[in-house]
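Researcher: I'm comparing several assemblies side by side, and this is the next one on my list. It has 878 residues spread over two chains. Same procedure as the others: predict the full complex and return the structure.
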Amino acid sequence: MNLTPLTRRRLASFRANKRGFWSLRIFIVLLVLSLFAELIANDKPLLLGYDDQVFVPILFHYPETAFGGVLHSEAAYRDPEVKALIEAGRGWMLWPPVPYSYNTIDWQINEPVPSPPSARHWLGTDNVARDVVARIIYGFRLSVLFGLVLTLLSSIVGIGVGAVQGFFGGWVDLIGQRLVEIWAGMPVLFLLIILASLVQTSVFMLLCLLLLFSWMQLVAVVRAEFLRTRNFDYVQASRSLGVSNFDIMRQDVLPNAMVAALTFLPFILTGSITTLTSLDFLGFGLPAGSPSLGELLAQGKSNLQAPWLGLSGFFTLLVMLTLLIFIGEAVRDAFDPRRSVVGVDAP
Amino acid sequence: MSDRILAVSDLSVAFHGKAVVHGVNLHIDRGETLALVGESGSGKSVTALSIPQLLPYSQAGHPTGSIRLDGIEMIDASKATLLKMRGNRVSMIFQEPMTSLNPLHTIERQVGEVLFVHQRLGRDAVRKRTLELLELVGLQRASERLTAFPHELSGGQRQRVMIAMALANEPDLLIADEPTTALDVTVQAQILTLLKDLQARLNMALLLITHDLGIVRKIADRVCVMHDGLIVEEAPTKTLFTAPAHAYTRTLLTAQPKGNPVPAPPDAAPLLQAEGISVHFPIGQGFLKAGRVLKAVDAVSFTVRKGHTTGVVGESGSGKTTLGMALLRLVRSKGRIVFDGEEVHGLSNKALRPYRRRMQVVFQDPYGSLSPRRSVRQIIEQGLRVHEPQFDEAARTSLVDQALEDVGLDPIDKDRYPHEFSGGQRQRIAIARAVILRPDLIILDEPTSALDMSVQAQVIDLLRDLQARYGLSYLFISHDLRVVRALADELIVMKDGVIVEQGQAALIFEQPEQDYTKALLAAAFDQKVVE
């Protein structure tokens, strides 16, 4: 890849920030692990041997009849009866480290739920006997992916609106800014609550609702950058070459604005995750049963006698948001021209 | 008190361990003017900044040398000593008067601060002395201007305020780092006369740093020529100009833009006719009420003939750049523009595109006119992609190579980025971008102003060469009359948005008719102030 010296200097500056670079490594490891959550926490065995045949229940759907049962529905591998059937056929099962999925209800638990941490449930169970570790792993993945998609979509909209306002200026800018100001003046949380109670919430629906309000953060930065750059000589030169406005924006102006936008992205990501969590906490977020950190916090609040719920949720969010903030700071400093003065030519 | 005010011996300056100035020796006596001459990057500014120890010392250092200011060693001097010397015994004037003054404070406060810090005068005394100083530097209506902010003053006035600040404590040594480079020629002449006059009155030593030999000849007693961090020659001004000893000095002296315009048939057909071009900007306009109007360009008419060069000269604010932008249809204007017999005024962007190809532009600042994030190849072929979309990669590459050769660059460099090139090379890239489409007319907006003298001469030779080869017409906008004289067939002199004088260039340079033109010529060629 052909990197300009500026990009190289920024990368070096990012690497030199130990805290940020380590945060990024840890975050990537956590993200990759959570992407393979099905292999870590699942209520189906990874591999299953039965009658000298090998089954992969995690990928394929096997009816109970395959193991000598009577039901035509998928085998419930955690059911003691199914386990007995498999053992009867000289079978074996290889379980993931956490043998529960986010929605697995542990029917065999023999204490009142929410149950405290134990060897069986490392972080205890919630009020319907679901394993907290499994819910955190899936919840982390959902939060981060949701945050990433929302950040991506709101950046696209925000950069687009900011670019048009900044590049054309004048009346376009004046009217656009007023509209953005009015839109930004809405009481966002209340509107989200009202909207979320009107429509059937799904992940996609929630994404759209949050997108309605999250695109405005980048508009100001991108607009300012476009306003500054649009009368630069090299933009004028492109104009006088007859290059179309769209191409000028894309080739000449946008690369400048991308620096400012990139600096903001990690913070938009944390903001998105926080918004999703607070909506879940209030009960207006993801559909019931989804692995959600906000819901875990809400359970912690209503079950104060079970502090492992609230504490688990709190520390997960703490780690996730702290890592993202550290990464964001490192990115911001790497792009800050005043901080990366090393190697600048002598006057 | 000795006469030797500054003695620099064996001074070296290094940035990050890399030496940029090697063993410089120089000295100045009371009442003397020493000029330090060299091109950009020669280390003259770094040398000057080390005298009051103003370099960024976290990155820079002096491996060897001593700087004695009136007998006091400045290198490694204590902070208290430095504070006592700076602004008091030694003062500096910088190149850019806009950024050297604090935009948030009034003139009175900025000049007064110097007095307050070093002389501990009372408020009334400070005010009285400030007024005196501003009158000394010839700021008109000084008492009214005390409460003015820097942006309310013109460039020349700001430079006067800077000089007043520098002189506030009657320093022994005044260091002027390119004090007039950012100013118009007539103002340049005024400021230089003022400096010379003040020096004689206050018996100061003056260290003048400049790249402009015209200024040196006018006011310096002795000259040091710097090249690559070394002083290659030191001589009294007269000796230097009559018998330069070092080869580099001779190059500098002969690097003046010279030669004559490419001969063109005087009756060539008109290529561009502008009739009554006006550009008016509304200023202080409210939301609904109509405000005042700034007439940047007002009813300007002229003709550019095929193969001719029309020079447009004038001081900053005379509207010459705006005129160029109006002809390129980059700002809204009134009037008729006829290009090669066809009306182009009022055409839509799309209908204008064929004319865009025939009319190109080269801007003043080679650092600003090339997108820093695109390679040289991408920059140059941009026009081809718009106007010749049917060309494939190979055809474009061969045209880019040829354009680079045309402007004297090596086609191997086409995948590098603009920041890897020097100012002169960047300007060549900008010219390559313009000529690759084989235009009929190139509007050159101060193409040489940001370049060193010797590079200027090369660029002008290149432009003349391209004009002869491709039969180009130029509209050459410049404030530098020496450059215009080397290129222009016709000349337009502009002031405050209107044409003061226009006609054959040779004729105007010989016998200017208008007083304004006379003043411009006198200031440019003799550094003389004509009232």
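Model: For your comparison table: The CA atoms of residues 107 and 160 of chain A lie 52 Å apart.
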